[in-house]
Fold:
Amino acid sequence: MLKYQQIALEIEKHIEENELQQGDKLPVLETLMAQFNVSKSTITKSLDLLEKKGVVFQVRGSGIFVRRHKRRGYVSLLSNQGFKKDLKDFHVTSKVIEMDVRKPTQEAADNLNIGLHDDVYFIKRVRYVNGQTLCLEESFYNKSIITYLNNEIVSESIFHYIKEALGLKVGFSDMYLHVDKLNQEEAAYLGLKEGAPKLTVETIFHLTNGQPFDFSKVTYNYEQSQFFIQANNELL
Amino acid sequence: MLKYQQIALEIEKHIEENELQQGDKLPVLETLMAQFNVSKSTITKSLDLLEKKGVVFQVRGSGIFVRRHKRRGYVSLLSNQGFKKDLKDFHVTSKVIEMDVRKPTQEAADNLNIGLHDDVYFIKRVRYVNGQTLCLEESFYNKSIITYLNNEIVSESIFHYIKEALGLKVGFSDMYLHVDKLNQEEAAYLGLKEGAPKLTVETIFHLTNGQPFDFSKVTYNYEQSQFFIQANNELL
DNA sequence: GAGTGGTCTAGACCACCCC
DNA sequence: GGGTGGTCTAGACCACTCA
Structure:
């Protein structure tokens, strides 16, 4: 683990353990440099990482402060595949409905940048939170990258498996959001009425080298759809 | 303008003007260092900025590549208040329905971190894209920060005014998303039927010093709700 | 193994906040 | 004006990719 990552983790841990609140001030740079025995740029890099994650904000000439939001029960849209973290106070389960190797749909092939005759793992599952339906998820994994999957892996965390067992590195993702009305099939899976509101999130996950490996389409139960995004606006 | 920002702008411009596509390779670091006559860290900082913006991705041992998404007509959820940019091919207008100085609701006061007896500017407007309703927006501005607003400013870009005329710096924002059904009033403004799907986005904008100055609640016409997010997943 | 991006350092100087 | 974060440099060394 790199120094700046390690330091970021420790600072984050420190904030959590001491239950620091929005606006609480952290030690000044010089103190942190001494405390972790590293150069200024390394500390700065740690803090930039935490700023990107929405954990702190830095004010020139003033200090480094804790960033926290007040509302509970919201899922971060950006910490991908992170229901475990965000809903840690809740009980999230999932039921696999279909899982097989097949040829992709035109849509999946386009998004994964593969041909119609390449193989994909197709997984369809319903996820529940506290016994209520949370979402219906359909995923296509490029089989030439994700070479093996089974029911056990799919029931647990697929991404954990991809990172740890396959040794792949997830880089970035493109997400597309739509709001519409549930069709009959979706309504049935989610236990709602046809025509009820839905939020659809399509995500294309890429490895660090830019190769797309997963196209997934998730339809959320609108009654459970509470999402949260922390944005930084300094991008010009 | 700082060097690294300037360089980032030029690289971005270069990508746009040459219509580079996803996966196209940019010059190597050493070349860029020479070209802009700056040190390695400065170039790195420029590229980190562009990576955060979703314009490029960097692969260790390989190169720097252009990041582009394929779909058109999607609005970035993160480039706040950025309809102008994203929908530049479209015609976005807005109609101010209400605008006055008043006392905040309990909800607005909580989110703006002010008291019930402090003043806020309240603005309610409907925005249109190509003649169709896009959203209904209700905003509360902390009057002790945003000291003056008028109809002309509100019809144009409020954020441009805040930055340029008031000299304030926008730092970060917290966004909360919900999906639900339109009530009667919202349906009337959006020209839809009561009970139709809606996406509600509540945003709390903060200055760089962490002070919240704007709480806004936007209800989108689901027929126009196509949003896009570029995420980076390397946050541990 | 050559090429390429990433980390880390030490230090100078700058820009901003607040008293 | 003192305190504090941000920018920028030059250079050493490390880690990954790909032929």
